[in-house]
Amino acid sequence: MTEAHYEITYIIKPDIEEDAKKVLIDRYDKILTDNGAKVIESKDWEKKRLAYEIANYKEGIYHIVKADAENDAAINEFDRLSKIDDSILRHMIIRREN
User: Fold this and answer.
1) How far apart are CA 3 and CA 77, in angstroms?
2) What is the pTM of this model?
């Protein structure tokens, strides 16, 4: 099976402390690697105003992860855990062609 390429964008609550944000990002990068994915890049994009309010927040910190995986286990686990994490307002996973 060939590796699939993914781009994951998630929005972190804007009022999170810097140390807590770093722990959160490290945790989700580790979830991916522990489940067989290879994190190519993990970086903050910027704090942006949201198009609509989410959980009483008008802005959020966007974080982007590029990862490769041979199966869906890592992506599915990231998806499952980010849905129940109060610090993540929204996330989107895209499978890239290149």
Assistant:
1) 17
2) 0.91
Which region among 1-5, 11-15, 54-58, 78-82 has the lowest average model confidence (pLDDT)?
A: 1-5
pLDDT interval class at 1 (50, 70, 90): low
Q: How far is residue 4's CA from residue 88's CA, in Å, rounded to a whole number? A: 24
Q: What is the DSSP string of 44-76?
A: EEEEEEEEEEETTEEEEEEEEEEEEESSSHHHH
Domain spanning 4-96: CATH superfamily: Ribosomal protein S6/Translation elongation factor EF1B (3.30.70.60)
Main-chain dihedrals φ then ψ at residue 20, nearest 5 degrees: -65, -35
Gyration radius (Cα) of the chain, Å: 13
How large is the average pLDDT for residues 53-62? 96
The set of residues, in sequence order, having a beta carbon less than 8 Å from that of 91 and lying 6+ positions away, is 8, 9, 10, 11, 78, 79, 82, 83
CB count within 10 Å of CB 4 equals: 16
